[in-house]
Amino acid sequence: MKSQNITPKKPQNENIIENKELNIWEALLPVIVLVGMLFYNVTYAFGDDALSGSNQFILLLGAAVAAIVGFFNKVSYKQMMEEVARNVKSTTGALLILLMVGSLAGTWLISGIIPTMIYYGLQILNPTIFLAACVVICAIISIATGSSWTTSATVGIALIGIGDTLGISLGMTAGAVISGAYFGDKMSPLSDTTNLAPAMAGGELFSHIKYMTYTTVPTITVTLLFFIIIGFTIDTTGAPQISEQLNAINTAFNISPWLFIVPILVIGLIIKKTPPLIALLAGTLLGGIAAIIAQPEVVIKIAESTELTFNSAYIGVMKAMTVDTAVETTNAQLNDLFSSGGMSGMLGTIWLIVCAMVFGGVMDAIGALARISKALLSLFDSVFGLFASTVISCLTLNVTASDQYLAIVVPGRMYAKAFKDKGLAPENLSRTLEDSGTVTSVLIPWNTCGAYQSGVLGVPVADYAVYAMFNWLSPFVTLIFAAFKIKIKQLAQD
């Protein structure tokens, strides 16, 4: 879930384009073609390397199919390009933040901040409780900051490193991080999606948050139990070798608890609602200063110099911010861990997001998104059917529009009157939008959220999706509540 602390808001009065010329099969055709091409590309052609570029081009091919449909339904090229431009513009903040996260990761590596987190974390977090602890830690940070993106980019990166060192699957650790981060973000009044959902449904923020607890608390409880059980059953290989790894970290870096000052300051800035780019830039620069002070030998080595001068310090820190850097240790596993791509390492994710926004923009411009939502709404007449159609619409938009904002805005606008006509309070709709639209966005590789989390944590969506239990379980829980009429608030109730 993105938040007002990490990405720009979509305007609440965003225009949802309708096209009466378009029938449902024409609206679905680009989706069917896109899903088919992506399936072949990932399953039979490129596998895990699909995100290196081929999936991006397929998104553009999907956009081309949508454009052809649009031409046959009297939508001009200019209209489509205007909507694409609007879509891409809406991701400007996210793209800049991705670049800044890359640079922050670089300076936090060479300064010893991330190694210090891993060093102390290895001694505190026992493998048995590690995954459950990841959920709790990320939930707390995300509630405080209102941002799953910031949580992943700071604490999440360190936890991934600790988990890897303990011999725990990266997919498991990433799933735990994302589960906790999205729970905290979803329940935080600082999150923009938490504000956007009730605004679209016609509800009130704190009533929305209170009503979400009915489905969210059981879901996170099951998630915690899941990770506790995994913790008692997994066979870790890293634990017996911790002393060797601690020595390797201590040899390569000057480890000091004083280095925690930098991440604490960054989290403090975010809690104080400092604009995210400013907070991350401050963290990057502070990380660079910390590197020069605490790790001069590392900076000299990266700069390929023989002594620390102003020029070598500048080159070393600038390299860490912008390009691939690595710090060698006496442990091969840590050598893979202590590397960063800097800003350049985020370019693949940025490429994916831009291409996804092109597809979503064309689909919106030709009226396909609105047409699909209306068709789903017409299929159901019962109260449960209304909830089910909302869930399906949100999931469909996360796949087709590649943006969780559209997965909230479009169904929110389309279904508000239907819920009111059924005598249902707006909290029912806003809760369903969050349970199915917000949290599932991270499970779609080409969605902005899936692309971001995968890029920041360095774990493919396919590897963490099954372990992000909170995210995929949430829509099922909201449907169970609807089916058994649990906490379905009526308009007549206070």
UniProtKB/TrEMBL annotation:
<feature type="domain" description="Na+/H+ antiporter NhaC-like C-terminal">
    <location>
        <begin position="180"/>
        <end position="485"/>
    </location>
</feature>
<feature type="transmembrane region" description="Helical">
    <location>
        <begin position="308"/>
        <end position="327"/>
    </location>
</feature>
<keyword id="KW-1003">Cell membrane</keyword>
<keyword id="KW-1133">Transmembrane helix</keyword>
<feature type="transmembrane region" description="Helical">
    <location>
        <begin position="347"/>
        <end position="370"/>
    </location>
</feature>
<dbReference type="InterPro" id="IPR052180">
    <property type="entry name" value="NhaC_Na-H+_Antiporter"/>
</dbReference>
<feature type="transmembrane region" description="Helical">
    <location>
        <begin position="27"/>
        <end position="47"/>
    </location>
</feature>
<keyword id="KW-0813">Transport</keyword>
<comment type="similarity">
    <text>Belongs to the NhaC Na(+)/H(+) (TC 2.A.35) antiporter family.</text>
</comment>
<feature type="transmembrane region" description="Helical">
    <location>
        <begin position="211"/>
        <end position="234"/>
    </location>
</feature>
<feature type="transmembrane region" description="Helical">
    <location>
        <begin position="93"/>
        <end position="118"/>
    </location>
</feature>
<feature type="transmembrane region" description="Helical">
    <location>
        <begin position="124"/>
        <end position="145"/>
    </location>
</feature>
<dbReference type="Pfam" id="PF03553">
    <property type="entry name" value="Na_H_antiporter"/>
</dbReference>
<feature type="transmembrane region" description="Helical">
    <location>
        <begin position="277"/>
        <end position="296"/>
    </location>
</feature>
<dbReference type="GO" id="GO:0015297">
    <property type="term" value="F:antiporter activity"/>
</dbReference>
<feature type="transmembrane region" description="Helical">
    <location>
        <begin position="53"/>
        <end position="72"/>
    </location>
</feature>
<feature type="transmembrane region" description="Helical">
    <location>
        <begin position="246"/>
        <end position="271"/>
    </location>
</feature>
<keyword id="KW-0472">Membrane</keyword>
<feature type="transmembrane region" description="Helical">
    <location>
        <begin position="464"/>
        <end position="484"/>
    </location>
</feature>
<feature type="transmembrane region" description="Helical">
    <location>
        <begin position="157"/>
        <end position="183"/>
    </location>
</feature>
<dbReference type="InterPro" id="IPR018461">
    <property type="entry name" value="Na/H_Antiport_NhaC-like_C"/>
</dbReference>
<dbReference type="InterPro" id="IPR004770">
    <property type="entry name" value="Na/H_antiport_NhaC"/>
</dbReference>
<dbReference type="GO" id="GO:0005886">
    <property type="term" value="C:plasma membrane"/>
</dbReference>
<protein>
    <submittedName>
        <fullName>Sodium:proton antiporter</fullName>
    </submittedName>
</protein>
<feature type="transmembrane region" description="Helical">
    <location>
        <begin position="382"/>
        <end position="401"/>
    </location>
</feature>
<keyword id="KW-0050">Antiport</keyword>
<keyword id="KW-0812">Transmembrane</keyword>
